[in-house]
Design brief:
Layout: H1 5-41, H2 44-72, H3 74-97, H4 103-131, H5 137-165, H6 168-188, H7 196-201, H8 208-221, H9 223-251, H10 256-279, H11 286-304, H12 310-337, H13 344-375, H14 385-407, H15 412-415
Helix pairs in contact: 1-2, 1-4, 1-5, 1-6, 2-3, 2-4, 2-8, 2-13, 3-4, 3-6, 4-13, 5-10, 5-12, 9-11, 9-13, 9-14, 10-12, 11-12, 11-14
């Protein structure tokens, strides 16, 4: 049963609301699982392994998930993700209530929820253009960004409060309820989703593996599309170095409370930027805005390394947080507009695999270089080692932006809508 894009926009809103609730529950669960594993084992390595388990499975399964989404449809991927998440959280809730929560159960929860994330996010990105008119795509993607960024701030706050007064079983149980509600919404709206594109996909005669290979070929051969994906992949390397260095940099001259403050301000900036993108309809000059906002983030990282004023860093991080949803939202919109609907799941999953796959590399580069510079007491004029690495990371972002602005064919994504290769 297909409706007009105007009517299905309200279907999209209901899906976003339900996903916001489940994302909030997941944010709370991730927060308390890290605390629990550290308090139970007393080992930083165990905490680090939980962090790895929270994203590495998503990287590994992304290509398979993308192919599954294109073959079976995004709504089915959302349903499967909801069933997996609900099931594992029900098990985790029972284990916690029975005081049988173990390291094995924690890793089972973390790995499964990482796989569920790999199912749900590309599915939502692939489903959005099926439900929303092209003129409102950037607005719809902004709403999705708002849901994600808001839960990343509110989730830990709620989890910390509940964990301080209650049990971890409460939080896992709440996450179970949020996943169950999101699953119910998907099932209720099942027939209201425009499935025409999904049905067309059933005509393909290729095997699963051949379809997956075709997805890689499609992404690589669409040069402008692939340039956009690689642009974000390289950005993530520099931003990943920033992520691992900024904490020791600030703690070198500030306190844990001050670091928490500026981190919260970054989150506030993300929420404000996401809200702005969810209220504005941007239909032109997207590449220019993407490059300018990315350049702004690079300058923010660079300026952070040049100052030890907490309040100045807080202001800089608000700006950086505000710019991040602009870059991401408009990039997702351009990918949706320039990708054949039959390949949306694979393209978004390949993009996720490349972008997330660079984070371990960035963390290793930042950690090794930071430790080496500190151990050898290397300084650069008035910069300490951590400040120097932030300046290098910020300058690298500026160089990446300059290169793609001058030599990349990303601009073709806006020049024509007929550049979709098959």
């Amino acid at each position: 049963m297909n409706f007009s894009k105007q009517n299905t926009f309200y279907v999209f809103l209901w899906i976003i609301i339900s996903q916001f609730v489940s994302l909030l529950g997941s944010s709370m669960t991730r927060f308390v699982l890290g605390i629990w594993i550290y308090q139970s084992t007393g080992q930083v390595l165990s905490f680090a392994m939980v962090m790895v388990a929270s994203y590495l499975p998503s990287v590994v399964v992304s290509p398979f998930v993308g192919n599954y989404i294109d073959r079976k449809g995004p709504r089915l991927a959302l349903a499967v993700g909801g069933i997996l998440g609900t099931g594992v959280l029900a098990f985790g809730t029972v284990a916690a209530m029975a005081d049988h929560l173990t390291v094995f159960v924690i890793f089972l929860l973390t790995i499964t929820l990482s796989v569920v994330s790999a199912l749900e996010m590309p599915a939502l990105q692939a489903l959005t253009p099926l439900l929303v008119s092209e003129e409102r795509l950037s607005q719809a993607n902004g709403m999705l960004a708002s849901a994600t960024s808001t839960t990343n701030i509110v989730g830990p706050i709620l989890a910390g409060a509940l964990y301080g007064f209650g049990q971890i079983s409460w939080i896992i149980g709440i996450n179970f309820v949020t996943y169950l509600l999101a699953l119910i919404v998907i099932l209720i709206l099942w027939k209201s989703v425009d499935t025409k594109k999904e049905n067309d996909n059933k005509k393909q005669q290729y095997s699963f593996w051949q379809d997956m290979i075709n997805g890689f070929h499609y992404t690589y051969n669409n040069r402008a599309l692939f340039a956009m994906i690689m642009f974000h992949t390289w950005l993530n390397v520099a931003l990943g170095v920033n992520s691992v260095i900024r904490q020791p940099y600030i703690l070198d001259f500030g306190s844990e409370e001050q670091f928490g403050l500026v981190t919260s301000l970054f989150g506030v900036g993300m929420v404000l930027g996401s809200i702005a993108m969810s209220t504005l309809k941007v239909n032109s000059k997207m590449i220019r805005y993407i490059l300018l906002s990315s350049l702004g983030m690079g300058l923010a990282v660079l300026l952070t390394g040049l100052t030890e004023s907490i309040w100045l860093i807080g202001c800089i991080w608000i700006m950086m947080g505000f710019l991040l949803p602009i870059t991401n939202t408009l990039s997702i919109t351009l990918i949706q507009r320039n990708t054949d609907a039959a390949y949306l799941g694979r393209v978004f999953s390949i993009s996720r695999m490349l972008s997330w796959g660079t984070l371990p590399l960035a963390y290793v580069i930042g950690g090794v270089m930071g430790d080496w510079l500190v151990s050898h007491r290397v300084t650069f004029m008035f910069l300490n080692p951590y400040g120097f690495l932030l300046v290098v990371a910020g300058a690298s972002i500026s160089i990446i932006v300059a290169y793609y602005a001058s030599f990349s064919n990303m601009k073709e994504l806006e020049e024509t809508k007929e550049n979709i290769t098959s």
